[in-house]
Amino acid sequence: MARIAYFDLRDASAPLKALVSTRPPLNIYRIAAHAGPAAEGMLALGSALLRDNELDDCWRELAIVRTGILCGSDYEVHQHKRLAARVGVSEAKIQALHDGPEAAVFDADEALVLRFTDQVVLRGKAGDSLFYALHDRLSPRALVELQLTIGYYMLVSRLLENFEVDLEDNEPSMDSFPPARPSN
In angstroms, rounded to a whole number, what is the distance separating the alpha carbons of residues 139 and 25? Predict the structure, then answer.
């Protein structure tokens, strides 16, 4: 059970209602809504990272699920495993995220993204050789989006864990999230 009562989204501001209306009905939004304008900013950033991104959707979801695993957020891992499958990540790769970037199922680029994720989450900063290897593979925009995605989902994971947000009783559909775009 969550540590505080869930916010009644009927009482949310118009901008927050608009942001939440484009998403599945998840408890994370009912906790974040307590923050008012800060929740609006948080959800707007999340929307940009999920919907208006240049970073490959599959790579993004690999990084998000791995971040959730490293942060110990079962809720985050559960929800984004579902979204990872929706954008085309194989079940074998989703399960291998628990084993880390060296799992044989990941190709070289995926392993690079996951090693970067591990270093950012665990050390705060990726080493030069890893950073520049990724820099050679991604545009500046996609590289910054990857960093922002990792940081954002560290924040989300910690919010979920500290408020002990419950998984929803009825599994909401992920249909309101866009399907995968063609890979880079």
Answer: 33
Rounded Cα distance between 104 and 99, Å, is 10
184 pLDDT higher than 50: no
Dmax (CA) of the chain: 49
Contact 163, 73 (CB under 8 A): no
Tokens matching residue 19: 């942001």
Task: Evaluate whether 70 touches 61 at the Cβ level (below 8 Å).
Answer: no
Q: How do residues 49-69 score in pLDDT, each as one tens digit?
A: 999 999 999 999 999 999 999
Report yes or no: 155 and 163 within 8 Å, Cβ to Cβ.
no
The sign one gets for the Cα dihedral 181, 171, 149, 112 is negative
Q: Could you tell me if 20 and 12 are in contact, meaning their C-beta atoms sit under 8 angstroms apart?
A: yes
**H/E element holding 134?**
helix 128-137
Q: Do 59 and 148 lie in a common domain?
A: yes
Structural domain of residue 33, as residue ranges?
12-52
Q: What's the total number of domains in the chain? A: 2
Average pLDDT over residues 143-161: 98
